[in-house]
Amino acid sequence: MAEVLDRVTKIIVDRLGVDESEVKLEASFKEDLGADSLDVVELVMELEDEFDMEISDEDAEKIDTVGNAVSYIESKM
Amino acid sequence: MKLEGKTAIVTGASRGIGRSIAIELAKNGANVVVNYSGSEEKAKETAKEVEASGVRALVIRADVSNADDVQAMLKETIGEFGSIDILVNNAGITKDNLLMRMKEEEWDQVMDINLKGVFLTTKAAARPMMKQRKGKIINVSSIVGVMGNAGQANYVASKAGVIGLTKTSAKELAARGINVNAVAPGFIETDMTDELAEDVQASMKKMIPLDRFGKPEDIAKAVVFLASEDADYITGQTIHIDGGMVM
User: Fold this and answer.
1) How many CA atoms lie within 13 A of B12 on its CB side?
2) Domain with A2 in it
C-alpha cells in the first residue's frame, strides 16, 4: 500500500507541480490539485507506464482522486 | 535536412498522394512507415523509393478503421524507431453515388475509413506525442469538403468532418506541443483524372485560376512544410492546394 502510494505521489508531484503534502488520498486531481482534463489523461498514461498496466478508457474516467488511483492500481497488481 | 531523424507514419501510402508524401518526407530525412491495407506490392514499391533517399522504411498493413490494427501499427512503429513525430492521415476511399441512390453501406464504409480512421490514428499517436511534448499531425482532407460536390455526399461529409476534427484536435493538443493541420487538395493528376475525357478535363481547368491540375508533389511539399519546425506556429488550419479554385 505504502509503496504504491509513494510511487503515485511522486508522479503527481512531478506532473502537476504540487507539494507532496497536498497529495492526500481524498484529494481530487481537478478540484484540489489544479489539474485540467488533459492533465488527468496524462497522469493516467504515466501510471500505466510506471506500473506496467493498461487502464481502459472506462476505468480511467473513474480515477479522479489520489485514493481512487491507488486502490485501482492495487486491485490490478 | 528539415526532418532528419524524425519518424513519420503515412496512412494509405501505397499509391497516389500518399506515396508522394512518403517519398517527399524521406527526401527530407524522415524514416517512414508505409501503411497500406490492400496492395502490399505497391506499398513495397513505395518503401523502395523511400529507402532510395537513404532513410529507413517500414511497411505495415493496417485497416485504419480498426482500432486494434491502429494500436498494433503504433506499437510496431515505436518498437522499430523509438518515437513517432509525424502522422499523416491520408488513407481514403470513394464510393460515389447520388444521394438518392446512395446505399447505407456506401455511406458507412467511406465514413469508417476517411473519418473514423483519422480519429483512431490521431488518438493512438497523440499518446506518445503528448509524452514527447512534440508532434505534427497532418490530415489530408479535400477541397470538396469545403465546397461540396454532387455525387459524393459520403466523401464530402467525411472530408468536411476531417476539417472539424483537425480544428478540435489542434485545440485539445496545442498545450502539449502538438500541431494539427489539414491540407485540402483540389484536382490532382492521378489515374482517376487521366481517365476523364479531354473536354471534361478542359471544363474542369476553367474552374482553376492557375489553369492546370495539381501534381501529387504539390501536396507532398506542403505536408513536408507542415511537418517541419518551420510550421511550429501554425495549427488548426486547412491549406487549400487547388490552384486557387476555392478562395
Assistant:
1) 18
2) 1-76
Q: Hey, what domains does chain B have and what are their CATH numbers?
A: 7-241 (3.40.50.720)
- Assign residue A13 the CATH number of its domain: 1.10.1200.10
The B residues from 97 to 156 touching A (CB cutoff 8 Å) are 127, 130-131
Helical segments of B56-116, H only: 67-81, 104-111
Exposed / middle / buried, residue B114 (Cβ in 10 Å: 0-12, 13-18, 19+)? buried
Q: What is the ipTM of this complex?
A: 0.81
Which of B131, B172, B175 minimises the CB distance to A45?
B131
Q: Is B32 helix (H, G, I), strand (E, B) or coil?
A: strand
CB B21 within 8 A of CB B90: yes
The band of B23, judged by pLDDT with boundaries at 50, 70 and 90, is: very high
Place of cell 492557375: B210
Counting the structural domains of chain A, the total is 1
**pTM metric for this prediction:** 0.93
How does residue B196 score in pLDDT terms, banded at 50, 70 and 90? confident
pLDDT single digits (tens) B199-222: 888 888 999 999 999 999 999 999
**Terminal Cα-to-Cα distance of chain B (whole angstroms):** 32
Give tens-digit pLDDT for B49-63.
Answer: 999 999 999 999 999
Residue type, B222: A
Question: Which residue's C-alpha cell is 523502395?
Answer: B48
Quote the distance between the C-alpha of residue B12 and its chain's center. 8
A42 interaction partners in chain B (CB closer than 8 Å): 130-131, 176
In the residue annotation, B233 being an active-site residue is answered as no
Give chain A positions within 8 Å (CB) of B130: 38, 41-42, 45
pLDDT of B193 > 80? The answer is: no
Q: What is the number of alpha carbons within 13 Å of residue A66 lying toward its C-beta?
A: 26
**Distance between CA atoms of B135 and B21, rounded to whole angstroms?**
17
